[in-house]
Amino acid sequence: MISGLLRCCSVGNKVKSDSEAGVQPNSQYKTVEKPMSQLLVIDGVSVRRDIFGRYCLNDLHRAAGAQDKHKPAFWLRNEQTEQLISELQISNSDTPEPVSVIRGGKDQGSYVCKELVYSYAMWISPQFSLRVIRTFDAVSQPQSTNSHAADKMQAGVILLDFMQRSLNLSNSSVLGACQKLQESVGLPNLAPQYAIDAPAGAPDGSSRPTQSLSALLKIHGIRMTATQAYQQLAKLGIVEQKERRSRSGANGIKRFWSMTAKGCMYGKNITSPANPRETQPHFFESKFPELLRLLETVH
Question: What whole-number distance in Å separates Cα of residue 187 and Cα of residue 46?
Answer without folding.
Answer: 22
